[in-house]
Amino acid sequence: MSQIKCRRALRLLAGAVVVVTLGGCGASAEPGDEVAAVSDRTVSVGLLLPTSGVNKAVGDDMRRGFALYLRRHGGILGGHRVQVETADEGETADSGRAGLAELVGKGVAAVAGVASPDVLSALRDPIRAAKIPLIGVNGSPASLQGEIFVWRTSYVGTDPGLAMGRYMAENVSGRVVMVLPDQRGGQDVLDGFRDGFGTDARLDREPMFAGAAANPGKGAYAGLVRQIRQRRPAAVFAALTGPAAAEFVREYRSAGVTAGLYGTGFLTEGTGVAEAGAPAVGITTALNYSADLPYPANRVFASAYRKEHGAAPTTYAMAAYDAAAVLDRAVQLAKGDLSAQTINLHLGRVGQVDSPRGLWQFNQSRTPQQKWYLREVRADGQVTSNVVIRELATLG
User: Which ranges of the sequence are coiled-coil (predicted)?
Assistant: First the structure.
């Protein structure tokens, strides 16, 4: 297959409920890419991603990360050609379950993706019934730890708050207040931040909630910003994401609040930092990835991603890339048994992963044991980006 046709095939992953056979893409591999020997069998993998709605940008990043791994490895996982089935996760528990049911009906041996923690929670019982491994590539609810068929190449929802809570307890003087989304994922972040900060009286134990609107309009946070000013904090910890994060940052800065602004990494990740623009400069966040990490694996990944998409990769793209990597290894270890339960068994035997984020491996609860990084938004001309300041901790 020509390089142009192969790239076109990879782009088809963006469509809702489409099938892409990537085995013929080996000819498009570039110098330095890895192409394994190919068997005459095919392994079927499902991608459950938001292809529309407020999380579409996250879903696009996930799709691009997964497709990049396949391209770099000739469309091969564990020595077998890959058939990728894509379904729309939607924005609700019902739409997520419907998407998963469609993939299960197509006979996939594993599923990767899911942007919404609320949707992921709703998939617990269907995944148990199907006995198919699900690899989450965004924040995973703490309640799903230890589920036999639920893995994640991202992190548990408490980890971002835990990492930043520890840092702020040690480095911020004065009162700290918390701003959280009124969603399931917000509770995990809150629990992690309280645990990390400890019992120090500087922390205002009562959080402020920003509501559940994923795409709020202009002025949506005027009341919230007034509440923040009334509490007179030295610093604010915020855990919003996407358009909500961008709108909050703009209103926070335009109101002239002088308290330092800190947050989980997704406060400024991806489109968040671009949409917020200059007001995002100076925000400090904690995340398990940054596009400027100096590891050799990241130089290769980030360079290839920028070349294809004209933008820096996000944690969502990286985690999807790693989901493909662990499936590659698990399928290889399965030695020709391409059943879902055998692949699930061998996911636990993958061992250390040489990832763009740095080396990591699954812990007993099927979560990466990985480094977390302190980042700051800085401006380079008209462009703003997250820059790594230092390592924070190893969690997992």
Answer: none
